[in-house]
User: What shape does this take?
Amino acid sequence: MELQQRSLTSRNLLVPIGSVVLALLVGSIFILVVGENPLYAYRVLLVESFGSINNIAGTLQRSTPLIFTGLGVAFAFRCGLFNIGAEGQLYVGGMVAAIIGVSFGNLPGLIHLPIAVFAGMLAGGLWAAIPGILKAKLGVHEVINTIMMNFVAYYLTDFLVTGPFHGGRWAPETDRVFPTAVLERILPPSRLNTGIFLAIVALVVVYIVLWKTKTGYEIRAVGLNPSAAEYGGISVARNMVLAMVISGAVASLAGVEQVLGVHGRFIQRFSPDLGFIGIAVALLGKNHPVGVFFAAVLFGALRTGGAAMDRLTDVPRELVVIIQAMIIMFVAADELIRRLVPRRRKA
Amino acid sequence: MGNVLEIDRITKRFPGVVANDAVSLDVEAGEIHALVGENGSGKSTLMNIVYGLYQADSGEIRLNGERVEIDDPRDAINLGLGMVFQHFMLVDTLTVAENVILRAEPQKFRFVDYRKAEQEVARLADAYGLRIDPRAKVADISVGQEQRVEILKALYRRAKVLILDEPTAVLTPQETEELFQVMRNLREQGTTIVFITHKIKEVLAISDRVSVLRRGKLVGTRSTAETGHKELAEMMVGREVLLRVEKEPAKPGAPVAEISGLYVDDQRGTAAVKDVSLKIRQGEVVGIAGVEGNGQQELVEAITGLTTARTGKVLLHGEPIQHLGPMRIKRKGISYIPEDRHKRGLILDYNVADNLILGLHTQPPFVEHRLFRSERHIAEHARKLVEEYDIRPPNPELLMYTLSGGNQQKAIVAREFSRRPEFLICSQPTRGLDIGAIEFIHREIIRQRDRGTAILLVSAELDEILSLSDTIAVMYDGKIVAVLPAQEADERRLGYLMLGGDPHLPEGDAERGVTAT
Assistant: This one.
């Protein structure tokens, strides 16, 4: 009897926005505990992340890898798969991009860069295909396997970066990639680079794939109701593998962007949990590209502003980690928020 | 005897709909009062108001002549009302007795007195003929037994008036018969029962009086002895209803599908279909009668490619298809209306339009340039089918789960019929639907037959088998035990065969449980 749409409505934005507000409220308790004024601290956070072109560039730079990992995780979610392996996928992707980047010094940039980017994506995609195939063919749970694949990726890249591809300097890192393989900086001194455009392209492409193609129709069908998908002639196994490949490829772009755009080289364990924060980004963004974009920007802003808050106030930067954690808790406990906001009695 | 429960001009509005419009209803002490109406006619809403789950916008409720305010189910329980819902609210990991006493535990030195609880539950169960083991874990008992636990919960709380919301929807025919016996025992011992259903047969079998709701309004109350199937059906639907499907005799043509020596295993790996052979010809309906769980499901899933047969052949126009996957089989011209529309037939979180292309979504015109969806054609297809099959509300953008069961089923029927199949398989096509929707779907099936489609119909409803089929096959324990022309079949004969009776004897004594299915 009750007619309600479950798509993008105000009711759907309630949980993400409510979660952020509640998390900030809880965060203010911690700020009070350290003896600061929450309003002041949050003002610093806001100004330092969005207050100037330079600050906005810094925020976007920190958001870029989160868009990739968030989008990758969200894509797998749409097929009913929980990809916890974005961290490993981005290391593998980043490493392959670095290897291509330090080799082939005589290629023109127009070819070198696309090859490095594409090879990184391909590597991440294939890396994610392994748990995908194990899930589709043998029913092994993808959560276990993607976690395990993370460790394999850590130690494999550890080996490569300290062994065959160790650069000329003492530190555990590769040589600089050739300038022809670099994602150019835009708006220096921030490290924002052309990877942000790649991220926006990825958002649009994922949107189109999911909602405008028959492939997306099949992937979402498998995610929503595998039995009905099977009945409709959709191969559940094939789509699961495909979804993992695309998910891994997109997530690995985070590593590619960090290597080719931010550091210019592969640095051992460079990622500050970008893959895991990506899970939070996907969750907060409701597995929708538009939501993922805003969630990634929010988390990017928290990291940028958090560093400044640490410098300018007595509030330690760890506060933003608490806020991030709170956001996830509140999103996960969405019923709680729904109850806080009065609603007409259900029919 | 006087009225124990009086509902006086109750009105309840939900956004956009009047669920109950000044409904007045008297329930006499000690009677079984049936409350019938189509899905969405407001019967459950009305009883939820009585039980305190909803508040009426206006009107009053009187118990034993006294006006009562029922704000929540706790008030209702204290006033001697009990209600058993369609969806049970039991804790799987607790025992029957523990579930019954939950929140009303007998105590001894402030500890729960489990011994007393078990004794009390056993005594109650015994008194009303509710066969159940108080120590069994709810997780281990059948749906029918879970329902008994719910009834015991109400009785344990000393319910004088018991409301049963479509209790038979989840029961097998045998369990239904047992429930009716329990209801008679309850009545004998003074409990008043309000029995919600939309099956007229059950009303006639068990109730003393019956009230009919249609679109939120009370159409009337009748004494069961003075009414009949026809009158009740008309009251429910609001117009004359064809109780028999009107059809010409079939004009069968060449065989379309031939199944021979088919063996199919169930999920546990034991044979569920044993050596089944069957031929379905153009323009005829072959009905498979049988108690559920005798291999019908596995047979159908093997034909449609959703499971793989162990051995045997399925031929379509003489060509073997038993090794093909679901998509290839669909493309050969087989349509399938699955038994479980929520699990198999629909993606509830997709909108109506997207559900109407499930299985067609890889074919032109719904795909352009081999990859992209053609929104225009998808929308056009949806608009056409929604109109042609009268799917309501007529908005293809609505998510499927917002539609009523009848309209969901219409959507499946629309999708599968629109493919103009040569071979159509219908499994329980009208389960849980109201009379109007059943009538519609039956008419559509016959229309398909008359355009020359070969149809295999699987149904647990003997009425449905008898009224639609031209040939009837009876399935028992995975085997086809008899095939007979529809003219030679009747309910008694089929019931006897379905329960494993010897097909070569005319009719034995072993026809218990065939009544009131």
Chain B has three domains: 3-237, 245-333+422-517, 345-420. Confidence is low (pLDDT under 50) at residues 508-517 of chain B.
